[in-house]
Amino acid sequence: MCCAVAGFLAGCDLGPAYHPDGGTVPPGFRAGTVADAAIWPDETWWRGFASPELTALIEAAQAHNLDIAAAMARIRQADAQVRIAGAALLPNLNGTAGASWQHDGAGTSGGSTPSRGRSVDLHSYNVGLNAAYELDFWGKNAATRQAAVSSAMFSRFDQQTVALTVVTNVATTWFTALALADRLRIAERNLADAEQILAVIRGRREAGTASDLDVAQQETFVATSRAAVPNLRSQLEQEVIGLGILTGRPPEGVTVTPGTLGKVALPPVAPGLPSELLTRRPDVASAEATLQARNFNIKTARAAFFPSIQLTGADGFQAASLGTLIGPGGALMSLAAGLTAPIFDGGTLRGQLELAKGQYDEQLAIYQKAVLQAFTDVDNGLTAWRYATEQEALEQAAVDQARRAATIARAQMVAGTVDITTVLTTEVTLLNNEDALAQVKLARAQALLSLYKALGGGWQRAGNDEHPGLSPSMLGGAVALPVGGNLQ
After folding, report:
1. Which residues contact 230 (CB under 8 A, 6 or more apart)?
2. Most buried among 24, 59, 274, 458, using CB within 10 Å?
3. How far apart are alpha carbons 345 and 343 in whole angstroms?
């Protein structure tokens, strides 16, 4: 008999089959080689840049950023939903107590004949306990709770994705400010050099060896160089102001002074196998958790087609006086069982099931896209880092050549062997190459930041802890979160 009941209950599991299917995982990255040794970021990867100010800004953002705070609040909401969903698996108990009084003005004489002029007060007291419990034969309530658990996991992974985005945004903003500070220094230095050359040309004009046109050309270059300075200062100030909202402070509270991007260390990082990447991206994990929740929703929708069995019971005491309330004579007890089965609902249940299936298929596509996006982000980061590194070396060589040419041209101008046009040409070339080098350095640093983010920023999903932060009492039974799935 017990075996038959166990077999019946096992056959009542309406959960859809779920098989891992995250799409095709390539053997290696397009922009990398299989022989490359993996250098994964650690949890505090930003310390590798050896910038105390950057570390302080990131720590402030982790503690006070409002997007992170909102994500933490969503975790608490999801945990509350787990408790709410799990309550259906437990009995519902309610205590009752009551008292009533009734005054009968007609009264009785003690027999069956009414006696005029007398009244009777009737008192009644009762206490009791009511219980209700739904037998979860079809696993509907368990599936609802498991969907809530998966949603809670999504909230945790989403918070970690938000935190990673905030950290990389702080680093990107800081590096942009450093690059703008470098460009501003280049512009101010070239402006000072141009003013010195202008003084030399004016002296030569007084000596009769330079023309008014020579002076006018250099004055134009000086004015152009001076006009470029305010724009760079504005961009720099706006980047520093932007650090305020990232660190949860008003702009007036940001007092950092950017240094130079040239002094920032750029520690190397390299991906391992694409299959390993899927355990290091919180956004992929959050897409997984949502997919799992959609799977449980299908089970809930299927279970709604079958009858629900409700058990109810009441136990208590009732008496005409408080002194005799608790006693054998006043004991009351009742038990009842009810069955509710859908007969005709106009297609509501069928529609809900099809809706759940459609939501699952949609989320499966979203999950598979998240996996592909992870591979794409790493390849883009590797490509940008490789070519930015190559471009920086070439641009540095161009700057060295331009500086050498400008030095020679200035010396020959003083000696009177070249005209001002040659000097202006070398000045413009040097300025453009130095400014381009500063921007290439920024592009290289940003490529490295993108690669750190693409590799998950040191985040790694624990292999033995599928529900971090969720207590056993909230989880109840074990809930597996697979790598991905395909519904059959």
Report:
1. none
2. 274
3. 7
**Three-state secondary-structure class, residue 391:** helix
Looking only at the bridges linking them, the beta strands covering 308-319 and 331-340 are antiparallel
Q: Report if residue 113 sits inside a domain.
A: no
Residue 467 lies inside a defined structural domain of this protein? yes
Work out how many domains the chain is built from and give that number: 1
Q: What is the CATH number of the domain that holds 416?
A: 1.20.1600.10
pTM, full prediction: 0.82
Whose CA is closest to 368, among 480, 271, 291?
Answer: 291
Query: Is residue 443 a part of any domain in this protein?
Result: yes
Beta strands at 308-319 and 120-135: parallel, antiparallel or unpaired? antiparallel
SS3 272: coil
Render pLDDT for 302-352 as a digit per residue (tens, 0 to 9). Answer: 888 888 888 787 776 666 666 566 666 667 677 787 778 888 878 888 998
Residue 334: what are its φ and ψ, rounded to 5°? -150, 145
Ordered DSSP codes for 128-164:
EEEEEEEE-TTSHHHHHHHHHHHHHHHHHHHHHHHHH
- Positive or negative, the CA dihedral 179, 185, 189, 192 is positive
Question: Which residues share a beta bridge with 78?
Answer: none
Q: Is 164 left (phi over 0), alpha (psi -120 to 50) or beta?
A: alpha
Model confidence pLDDT, tens digit, residues 345-400: 788 889 989 999 998 989 999 999 999 999 999 999 999 999 999 999 999 999 99
Q: Which DSSP helix (H) or strand (E) runs through 206? A: helix 140-206
Please, which contacts does 462-466 make with residues 24 or more away whose CB atoms are closer than 8 Å? 463/279, 466/153
Q: Which string of DSSP letters, residue by residue, matches 47-67?
A: GGG--HHHHHHHHHHHHH-HH
The torsion defined by the Cα of 170, 176, 178 and 181, in degrees rounded to 10, comes to -140
